[in-house]
Amino acid sequence: MNRVRMIQFSALAILVLLAACATPTPQVIEKVVEKPVEKIVEKTVVAERTVVVQPTAVPGRDTLVVALARAPSGIDPADHSSREAETVIRNLYDGLVTRDKTSGVHNEIAESIKWLDTKTLEIKLRKGVKFHDGSELKADDVIYTFERVFKPNAIEFPQPHTALRKGFLGPFGSAEKKDDYTVVVNFTAPWPAAMQMLVHTQIVSKAYVTKVGTKGLIEKPLGTGPFKFVSSKTGLEEVVLERFADYFGGAPDLTPVGKACVSRAVFRVIPENSTRVAALLAGEVDIITEVPAELVDTLKKVPGVQVKSVAGTRPIWMEFNVTQAPFTDVKVRQALNYAVDKNLIIKKVYNGLAQPLGGALMPTNNFADPSLKPYTYDKAKALALLKEAGWTPDASGMLMKDGKPLAFVIDTIDSLRPVTEAVATMLRDVGIDASVRVWEYNVVRPKLLARERQAYVGDWGDSAFDPVGHIEAKWHSLVTGSTYGRGNFSGYANARVDKLIKDGEIENDVAKRKVIYNEAQKLIYDEAPALFLVLPEAIEAAAARVQNWAPASDSRENLHDVCLK
Amino acid sequence: MTNTPLLELKNLTTVFPTRRGLVRAVADVSLSLAQGELLGIVGESGCGKSVTMLSILRLISTPGRIAAGQALFQGRDLLKLSDGAMRQIRGKDIAMVFQDPLSTLNPAFPVGEQIRESLRIHHIAQNHFAREKERVIELMSEVGISSPTDRFHEYPHQFSGGMQQRALIAIALACEPKILLADEPTTSLDVTIQAQIMDLMRRINEARGTAIVLVTHNLDLAAEFCQRIAVMYAGRLVEIGTTDQVIETPQHPYTRGLLTCIPRISAQRTRIEPIPGNVPDLANVPPGCAFAERCSEMQPICQNDLIPFFEIAPGHLVRCLRHSSATPD
Amino acid sequence: MTAHAPTRVARGWDYSFRIRLRLWWRALAELGYELWQRPVVLLGGIVVAAFILAAVFAAQITIHDPTRGTLLLRFEPPAWEAEGNWKYPLGTDDQGRDLLTRIIYGTRVSLAVGLLSVAISVIVGTALGAFAGYYRGWLDEILSRFADLLLAFPFLIFAIGVMAFLGPGFVNLVMALAFKGWVEFFRLVRGEVLGERTKEYVDGARVAGQSNLAIIVSEILPNVIQSVFVLGTLRLGYMIIMEASLSFLGLGIQPPTPAWGSMVASGRDYLLVAWWVSTFPGLAILLLVVAINIFGEGLRDILDPRLKIE
Amino acid sequence: MKAIKILERVLTTIPIMFGVAIIVFFFIRLTPGDPVDIMLGRSAAASQREIEQLRHQFHLDEPLHVQLGYFLGDALRGNLGYSYIRNKPVVDLLVERLPATIEMTIGALLISLIIALPIGILSAVRQNSLLDRLSMAGAFLGISMPGFWLGIVLILFFAVYLQILPAQGRISYDVELQEVTGLYVLDSLLTGNLPALKDSLLHLLLPSITLGAGVAAIIARVLRSSMLEVLRSDYVKLARAKGATEWDVVMKHALRNALIPTVTVVGLQVGVLLGGNMIVETVFSWPGLGRLVVDAIFNRDFPLIQGAVMIYAITFVLTNLVVDILYTYLNPKITL
To answer: Is C273 close to A295, i.e. CB distance below 8 A?
Structure first.
């Protein structure tokens, strides 16, 4: 009876084999190509069976299925905080303005927008824009939307609280109705970033929300967007939309204009990367977001799958806690910037689909200073700087100062674990005992703001392509209860930088703004409160039958344009 | 009595491979049973009597197997029958009563149901439930189970030991078999119940002419009940004869040893003498007489070769060299 | 007078210790013989021993650093594959670290967590079980009720719950596992002690004037220790799976310390391009746990056939 | 008689449930630091007033036994607190997720029984045959196979390569189904919706196999060993001596008795299935409790974790109650 168990070892082998067979390996195809010509036909068939797998389209299907990596954090345009939520919401709702696939801003509901002075904006609304219930969008709806987002405790469900999107209205003061199609917005300060920021506020119907309340709006959203809400399942794991027949057509600058192409759109959450890719290969979904960079080459070789990427808007840094040794020493911070080979990380971890950061702003930001070149990889320089700071290698190569090793924990979130581990590995290579701890963002954030941690690899969305919304969050010193320094995890506080950031916010002249921001960027670059890492591209994949689709820089899925073959 | 015996075993040998070697639990056993006869097989536990019974029904569980010999039932060799044909015999022609009634009754089914199953298997009542149940109740009262209608639905654990044994007998009798193999039917019961059960079996024998093979370690019980007795030791038969022959003139030293072990009221001897020594390892039975090592009358020659049977009186066979003057069987 | 008594006790202890030692030796020799008779069990034992040795001498038998690697060597395939290299027999992971080295070091975590949590479970469970079974009364009542309550929780869910509140880390992990692990030992020992306490030798010891504690420690416990040992072996495999599951969920050991569960978890994204990264740590879990189970079940058959727990 | 016994058994679960609630209540005491700090984690700039408010709301400003009283009282009224991360009462979250988890657990249990029963029986009947050896080796593997790994391999093979089974989700988006109980298979039966029945069954298959594999292995091993024991028993010999066919001997006499210990094990395995859900639900994008809990753990959503652990424990206790009751029908000897 005991001998029975001997067999399990051979069974192990079978399992491994099974895994190897079921795993589509690109090598198979390459080998096939090398075969003599007369055998190609036969072998190709074999290869297709062993490899993958043309997504089979269900005949007559006019439904577009998009797989998201995470559930949307909400479906109320005023009250959410994730890109997934924005993706769903912006297919249901429209804003006054919208953004194209890169950073251009175009009028959507607004017919025209003009500055009356540096603090006053006049918005003329397009006529005939219909909500999904058939009512027309008018000035009252815009004003109601602004107030709902901005006023304290304006969201009454589940408990009265202030909208999470408040920050996107900047120095909003008040909004007045001039006529049914004209709104004048008064700001309390000049707001040069207004256009990019307004993209993120979607207009709700005053009549509808006052009638059904926030709870009703969440249960059955109603907007002016190209799609109507049909249903959603448990915790927004699945959201079903259908084409809105009376859609006004969308931003006239952005072709195609008109009703949505597909009759139905479904958002489905598939958190596991492998499963999401498998679902695309199996033909169950049409578009998948957040394709792991490792899989790009594999997927590109699969017939019937298109892979596209676009410069993302989530730059990644490793912020040092500058209030704590050893990071109080600027030399250490600079040394670490030299110690990490960003290009190798880009090549290996991101499969080439990323760019190195030359400081605080991502290279695609409209105000990024192109003269700031990313810190080069220079191990000798790093060691020299560390030596100046008093850290010298011991016999085993570990850096020591006063008998203590240079050791710290790098915190990060799960999605950034590979790049963080790569950084830690490179730091260990110069003799730093760096280890990694993975957290959930919500958990680690208060600890970072309390300066309890040592280093943090994180990203921060910069989808507005303007320093505002970003630079004051990351590099301004922390001002509790305000938006300043809300994402400042390094504890970096430089009075000059603070002042420059505030100046930039209200400077309407682009050239002058550039000067201001260039100075700020240079200061941050030199003082290196962070290890400036990379800006990864957003990679998405779709079935071949999906047409007129491309990922957007702000990683939003605009399904209005997408068609199915 | 007819000439052909009802059941005849010829050189039956059953072996069990074990880690220590091949155990010959039943070695070269030859026996015959006549119609309506009461035969006793006596021996210490582990001597192979139960295995002999199971071999007749071909119920030896793997890895054990019947290595040689024949078991002729009404002239047909049971060992050569197909599995299906063998199933027809089991329970119908040859039934068995096992020794531990509690563990032999299936705890998961009501007793009545278990008796009925015998009827169903052999289509005794045309698989007609009401008729089957009627017959079961009849059987239950026949074996002395009181208020059978109520107890039909009761489970084995609700029965007393004696009642369980009666139920087992009822199961065995259900198809009115020609042979009843009773393997220590009373061992686990107390004395009064024992007597009742033996009494029941005798009545069955008388009423139906069922031949009964009583397997027991209790020579006394066999003497009281049986017409003929076979004594078994270490897988071999050592003495066969009528009850009188075996009890009054035991010829094998082992039989005599068994008799002295039994406290007997009738006998003059009052001292009980246990047989010295132990039963040999069945995987390693010495050549010659298996009992030799424990035998007070052992001679060197006893350990040389297998001892044949010597017929010392008509029908009285014994495997002992002390009788080598008699003709070997 | 007063000086006399301790000497006697001491001599008694010494004497019984020597006898016991001899008995243990004999038992051990017998065990060795029985194992020799069961080659598969022996093989299980050898595999377990090999893992233990690998854990202890990890630094001596590996040539790579488990936490250092280079992205240049990312996803090197196992040696037998077309582009493999015998320098990295099982290939490298997403950080270019040698997978075999990490698996060998990972043995440390798995075994340390497994052994420690079982050890704590054994000590706590045995002590409480012995006292509860020996003294009965309210202590027994409370402990037994509490044990029943803990049994109402599925093990993994309880451990996840506790870890969620304690936070990840080695000590917390061991604590979380032991917090529920002791129950089985408690029930086993309590049951055995309940049976043993009424036996003659215990009465004898009591008549001879031994204290209750001495009776428990020197008379009763040696009789239940075999069952505890067998159960402990079987639980070890279970605890290792629990550790792997918790690490897989990110509640266990944090990177870069190699732990099998988190290696499996972090490798799963690469299953389509580098199947080995999560497969081999998975197989390591499989192999060790299977070996422990075979060995444990073999021990059970040899030492304590009564103990049949699935 | 039996009814009273069963009722008694049902009543014994009440103190256990209370105990479960008390243990879960003390969970939050395990956290190093102030729970309110952690709860407020996401709005680091919370004012002192907000902290006080929350402290009051959770009765953290009262003595421990009063807090426990509140907790038990609330739990009894079906109030398990409020999830700050998800902005919803915990009970609502659990209720909307529970059916999916129950459906997968039942599916896995059925699959594991479908796999385990024939294998357990056959390998006992044909002990030491090749079939026996292979299936027992498979069983050993099944016990120790990491669930996610099996899940992904199954997806790759059945969904991507063969394209005969769906890779994820509970039902296709284009299949209409009116929800009644939240168990999709049951709902499609209740509403007589055959396409939905087929679709939901297909979706259920791979996750159930993934989740059930380990349990199937354990059940098969237990069944095999108890079958082996039973097959050696006297009553099986008696059945053979009656002339019963091998089929009857095995399937009626032996199996019925071998199932008795097996049923207990099956009950305990439900605990394993509930734990395994967390991983399998992630792999198959199954919107059940397991994924919610994993999420809750990483977000330190303590009220949700407490509630979920409690629901799991109660499900487990209730399952074992059902098993015990089932047991009385299998084993006539049993007194509860």
So the answer is: yes
